[in-house]
Amino acid sequence: MNNKTQFTKDQLTEWAEDCRMLAQCAVDARPDDVAAAKNLALAEIVLAVLTVKPFMYGIEDCDGMAYFAEHCVSSNPAHLSDELQTADDESGEGAKVIPLYRLPEIN
């Protein structure tokens, strides 16, 4: 049995926004508070990760591995869906289009 609590992306984003707001208030009140500054930086990183848009889309094969071919990435997921629909061989069976993300830069 799994006792791990599940959260939606929206719930985590809302919580991270609240944490960022509280951490910003703490930094504003005590600019020399290193712990508050760390909490603010961490909340900003979490928000950046949760709200980033896909960089591009790729194809994942039925085994969960990256699929590499001539038309295996695109900025438009519909193009890849069309590519999967027109595949002549069975290697496309079970494959799906997935979003690919670039990690946000941390300064």
Describe the structure in your own words.
The protein has two domains: 9-51; 56-100, no CATH class. 45% of the residues lie in helices and 11% in strands. The chain has helices at residues 9-29, 34-51, 77-85; strands at residues 56-60, 73-74, 96-100. It has a three-stranded antiparallel beta sheet with strand order 2-1-3, covered by helices on one side. The longest helix has 21 residues, at 9-29. The chain is elongated, with a radius of gyration of 20 Å. The model has no long low-confidence stretch (mean pLDDT 87).
Summarize this entry quickly.
The chain is of the alpha+beta class. It contains three helices and three strands; from the N terminus they run ααββαβ.
Summarize model confidence as the mean pLDDT. 87
Between the first and last Cα atoms, what is the distance in angstroms? 41 Å
Order of helices and strands: HHEEHE
The largest sheet is:
3 strands, antiparallel
Strand order in the sheet with the most strands: 2-1-3
User: Oligomer, anyone?
Assistant: single chain
> How many domains in all?
2
**Class from secondary-structure proportions:** alpha+beta
General shape = elongated
Q: What is the count of β-strands?
A: 3
Q: Unreliable runs, pLDDT <50, ≥5 residues?
A: none
Strand fraction band?
Answer: 5-15%
Computed over alpha carbons, the radius of gyration is 20 Å
Q: Please, how many helices?
A: 3
Q: Helix content range of the residues, please?
A: 40-55%
